Amino acid sequence: MEFSLFNILDILGTAAFAISGALSAMNRRLDLFGIFIIAFVTAIGGGTLRDVLIGNTPVTWMENTLYIYLISVVTILAILFRNYLNHLRKSLFLFDTIGLGVFTITGVEIGIRNELDPIISIALGGMTGAFGGVIRDILCNEIPVIFRKEEIYATACLLGGLIFVIMHDQNINTDITYLVTSLTVIILRLLAVKYHITLPDFYPEKEQK
Questions:
Q1: What stretches pass through the bilayer (predicted)?
Q2: For residue 129, what are the contacts with CB-CB under 8 A and spacing of at least 6?
Q3: Element (DSSP H or E) covering residue 12
């Protein structure tokens, strides 16, 4: 495997999402098998959906077993160091945010490489970044973060994807584009949570719960 910045970020995103999946599974007190399953689907769910939609089969993790080994190793580490990670109240949020930012840019980049329309490429970035977490939350019997009104999640993906497309069209250095875009998504979500920034709420006050 060629270790370009793109591939390094892809590995980072895979590891971050695998850890977030493992932590989420342990929070729900799943057994060992359940922890590994949740870690795997969180790490590969968005990328698998992307690859299937663009006809890139066999999907990436089936062609490159590095991803399977990587997810297995980081899941074992998450289990071994679960007591330490549990003391970090925002560990799950942090790893989920890192995965979101990194996978958004990999999704957009793959869309561009396949010469897809910029809007479709941005959508692929959002799917790659968000849908592993959607599957994780559904399997853990929780409302997916992307659908919670108190969270800025998909919006951060789409804005990051838009910035990526603009920078790419301006022929800005690819590595700089990767870093700026992923950091934009991460910082947007961190700021949104810190300052309680949400999308407009259209529900009448009496319907609030």
A1: 6-25, 32-54, 66-85, 92-112, 118-139, 151-170, 176-197
A2: 46, 99, 100, 101, 103, 104, 107, 157, 185
A3: helix 5-27
Quick check: is 147 in a domain?
yes
pLDDT per residue over 133-147, tens digit each?
Answer: 999 999 999 999 888
Domain for residue 208, yes or no?
no
Q: What angle do CA 160, 141, 154 make, to 5 degrees?
A: 10
CB of 125 closer than 8 Å to CB of 161: yes
| In the block, residue with structure tokens 């709420």 | 201
Which token pair is 76? 């074992």
**Interval 77-134: pLDDT, tens:** 999 998 887 665 577 888 999 999 999 999 999 999 999 999 999 999 999 999 999 9
- Residue 191: both structure tokens together: 């700021």
Give the range of the structural domain holding residue 52, as residue numbers without chain letter: 5-198
Residue 87 lies in a domain: yes
Residue found by looking up tokens 């869309």 in the block: 111
* Alpha carbon distance 144, 128 (integer Å): 15
